[in-house]
Amino acid sequence: MGWPKGARKWSPQEVLRDAKQAKELFRQRRLEEPKERYLEAFQSLERANKKVVELLPDLLTDSVDPRLVSSLIQDGDLFTALRYLGAPPISTDDLETLLGNTLAPTLIAHDPERARNLVHILRRILDPKRFPWIYENRSASTSEKKAAVLASSVAASAQRVQTSRRSDERDAVEGAVRALLLKMGWTKEPSPRRGIQVLLTDAPQNGKFMVGCTVGEHNADIVVRVTDGRVLALECKASNSEINSRKRINKEVAVDAGSWIRQFGEQNVVPAAVIQGVFNPAYLIQAQNTPVVFFWAHRLNDLKRFLLWSRC
Question: At what angle do helices 92-99 and 112-125 cross, to 10 degrees?
């Protein structure tokens, strides 16, 4: 496959240089991150865990109250507390899979059988270390309740902060790209409902871009019609470790890029990614052979130069 005209293919030395700089910037963001985010999460989840721990005897009884179960699922913090009863905590997707049904609160409130099945799952996964009194069929001491609430709140708060970190990093990258496009005169237009299946009719027109749409069989974060007529399909990726970067690059970006090139042709689409955080340089060097054009979030002028080149 040829290399997209007008785009830079980074040498191994250049990739190493920018990967090192991106990693250092990531360290700075982490060290400067305020603890308030964790403390705010802990405060709200501690309240939820206290309520759920107090309700455990009524919740896990054989006579299940569908309205009680529904009310706990309907509240985001209380639902998190429910999921963190497990050893280990259970995800929403896994809980729905085990239940074999949706977790819609309104349906559970009017379906005693579904509520009973959900409570049965919670009983099966309940952590015996945090909740020994349930297994021993006795009342809990004040210290046991406090210990259970503390352990559950710490675990749930840490996970919430980690999840928000990933979202924040990715959102920051996408926001920076959108701001650059708008500043350069590109305008945003809505994505077609069916996604982009035919570049000529579905992709943005010259000087326009779309956000969050399907291109062929895969999603792109930002799709830009550059002035020379090609479609720039951008993915915005953030990574917090070199191991994680393998998934982001090899199993996401490169796979999508290969699919776009096969479907639309290398003369018509430019698969690219704007990246931020910690990346293994070897994965980036390898993915360029797909080809994928990489732009670093701390070097968005490279993206600007590519867009300006397409106007020539």
Answer: 120
